[in-house]
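Throughout our pipeline, every protein is held as a single compact record rather than as scattered files. The record that follows is passed on verbatim for readers who wish to inspect the format.
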Amino acid sequence: MADIRKKLDENVDGLFFVDSTCIDCDTCRQLAPEVFTDIGNYAAVQKQPQNDDELRAALRALVACPTGSIGTIEKMDIKSAIAEFPMELEPDIFYNGFTSPDSYGATSYFLRHPDGNWMIDSPKWMPHLRDRFREMGGLRYIFLTHRDDVADADRYAKEFGAERIIHRLELSAQPDAERVIEGLDPIQFAPDFLIVPVPGHTKGSCVLLYKNEVLFSGDHMWWSRNRNGLSASRSVAWYSWKEQVQSVKLLEKYPFRAIYPGHGERKALTADAMSAELRKLVQVISR
């Protein structure tokens, strides 16, 4: 729970506030960009909710915050906000919310599929999510893009008898994972699912391409609201920026219209428009 005694001075006065335990993970700004803003090392309230939609968005951000850094000066009923997760982004693809501090607030997703449902990366363990996943048909696979964003994947795997998928070079994060990816060649895991190793952020980072349309990109690449385009960053290429650049170039051969990252903005365009954005990014990072 946020502590009013730790309230940041940059918050505008009103119902919602952010305290100094914030880790600036961007979760709140993704869910309620009208209400929350970036002030450097923290998020803060830039405008109090002005209508019901903004209020609902702010409450979603409150319950999704990994560190419980968002609070209200009056007690609010958050049950309806909790009930909105997993939140549908497009047919059969959902944002789980309830981000984990263990993965620095990384986004995780639920994908409903007739051959068995997938979770991409992991939220914190939440009985609400467990129950909702069960209602939606359970989990067959948990795809882990890299070591940083595994959070409570082991608990969800045990609960549903799901198989965790992770690259061998990231295996120390989930040493008892059921499926281990080897090497650097793309793997057609199932008809709708292509796994592509993309070393750079970490040595064993992988992305998941769904139906040649949707790219679950982990921390490899994301949409940036600041530059209004695809982005990748040398500052988070913990393994190798040179390899990161080559891995981004590699993705030019794969069509996709939407990108769902672990960190950064989600974005859906047409396939042609997304390809154009990817070419722009390659030009920028290749300089």
In short: The chain has two domains: 4-72, 84-285. The mean pLDDT is 97.
